[in-house]
Structures are given as structure tokens and as C-alpha cells.
Design brief:
Strand order of the largest sheet: 1-2-7-8-13-10-11
Low-confidence stretches: none
CATH architecture: Sandwich
Number of helices: 0
Strand content: over 45%
Structural class: mainly beta
Largest sheet: 7 strands, antiparallel
Radius of gyration: 14 Å
Order of helices and strands: EEEEEEEEEEEEE
Shape: globular
Length: 137
């Protein structure tokens, strides 16, 4: 896996890929239309952030590259890569419990608060892409 040089792109499997943690300064691409929604990505080495229709979807600190990001009614799946461990925040449903699996290992259940944000840490440094699966409990 590598950074997404075009910042955001649609994949043949119905998912999207985004993020370039190699950039030295903040770069953004907005009004990327995909399946009737408008996406905006901001990315560089310190942060990667994705919004859909002006609503928060994904953020990582430091920046990451995300491939095959797919959201369904009850799950989110993606592969993530970065130069060092990252904290990832996802915008999901308010006050809902989610089961999380990171790199094939259960990270347990996480309950979102009223803002619907789910926060998890992912060990990335020097590894290939790490698979993250989050499913509504």
C-alpha cells in the first residue's frame, strides 16, 4: 500500500481511498463526488481528515493513508498505513456500541457518546497496512 497521491479516489470495489502522510504541508481536495455524496479530504504528515457532505467521517493524528474505506449501515472497514502509531477518530452513530477488530485482533467494544465519535489507537510504525473493522454490536 502507498499514499494516495491524488488525495482521494474511488475504488472499483465501491470503496474510497484517501490520505498522503508524506506531504510536508496541509493539502486539501474538496467537492469530490462519489455515490451522490461530496467528500473533502485534508491531509499531510500531521493529520488526515475526511468529511462527507460537511459532516465528520475520519481523522487520524498523525496523518495516514487509508485504502478501501467502506461504510455500511452497521459497519466501517478500511486498511490504514502510516509512518508511526496513530490515533483514529471516526464519526459514527450517537450512543451506540461497536465491536472493533484491529489487525485481526479484537480491541473490544467501544461505545460512542452523544457526538458519535469512536476513538482507537492503531500500531502502524514500520508495518504494512493494518486492517480495521468496526461493527455495530
Amino acid at each position: 500500500m502507498a499514499v494516495v497521491k491524488e488525495l482521494i479516489r474511488a475504488e472499483k470495489d465501491g470503496s474510497i481511498s484517501f490520505g498522503d502522510y508524506e506531504l510536508a504541508s496541509k493539502t486539501k481536495k474538496q467537492d469530490f463526488e462519489y455515490q451522490g455524496d461530496l467528500y473533502k479530504v485534508k491531509t499531510f504528515r500531521e493529520i488526515t481528515k475526511l468529511e462527507r457532505n460537511d459532516l465528520f467521517v475520519y481523522e487520524s493524528v498523525p496523518g495516514t493513508a487509508v485504502e478501501h474505506f467502506k461504510v455500511t449501515a452497521d459497519s466501517v472497514e478500511f486498511q490504514v498505513e502510516g509512518p508511526e502509531d496513530a490515533q483514529i477518530t471516526l464519526g459514527l452513530e450517537d450512543d451506540t456500541e461497536y465491536l472493533t477488530v484491529v489487525d485481526g485482533v479484537s480491541a473490544g467494544a467501544i461505545t460512542t457518546g452523544l457526538g458519535g465519535k469512536l476513538v482507537l489507537s492503531v500500531e502502524l510504525g514500520g508495518k504494512d497496512a493494518v486492517e480495521v473493522k468496526i461493527k455495530k454490536a
